Amino acid sequence: MDIIELLKSAFLGLVEGITEWLPISSTGHMILVDEFVHLNVTEEFWNMFLVVIQLGAILAVCVLFLRDLLPFGFGKTRVERRNTWSLWGKIVLGCIPAAVIGILFDDFMEEHLYSSTVVAAALIVYGIAFILIERRPRVPTTTKLSRITYRQALIVGAWQVLALIPGTSRSGSTIIGGLLCGMSLSLIHISEPTRLLSIS
Q1: Which residues contact 126 (CB under 8 A, 6 or more apart)?
Q2: What is this structure's pTM?
Q3: What is the DSSP string of 135-198?
Q4: What does pLDDT average to over the chain?
Q5: Residue 101: pLDDT band by 50, 70, 90 thresholds?
Q6: From 77, 94, 132, 200, which residue has the greatest number of CB atoms within 10 Å?
Q7: What are 28-51's pLDDT values in tens digits?
């Protein structure tokens, strides 16, 4: 790989790094950028690149939420340890819908949905959805992480299935699902450990 391809890779990494932490699709934006800054690689390498490039964001989540994710150490009380195990149970439950749909329809989605047209349409649709949901009057019923129910975790997981469509943000679909099932916006923001198990 020559210097030009390395610079392209670095630029795509910058796009990934910026978009991963916003409620917009990082993978979708890389697909759009690829239309203009195309890596001279095989299709197999490109598909692997789209997954591997997200490892930096996953590592950042692990470091940032280390205390929340580990049930042992950090001077946690028995109640805090129990809450941590409960959180992991909800995270795993929330991942099941996307895992099942992803395994069943992976080849179909890769063949028919990985295009700039689908990405652009998804970005527009979810941009409008965010505006409408933000304007919708609501009184959150769940404001603490420990109060998230398994039912809410499954609902949010079902919404994350939409993130299998390129251009649909995982965090964006999580926010929409969380708001619609009664979570406060501030709670959804501190529930980001769910990103660990929602990589599409």
Answers
A1: 167, 168, 169, 172, 173, 176
A2: 0.76
A3: HS----SB-SGGG--HHHHHHHHHHHGGGGSTT--HHHHHHHHHHHTTB-HHHHHTTGGGGGG-
A4: 83
A5: very high
A6: 94
A7: 888 888 888 888 888 888 888 888
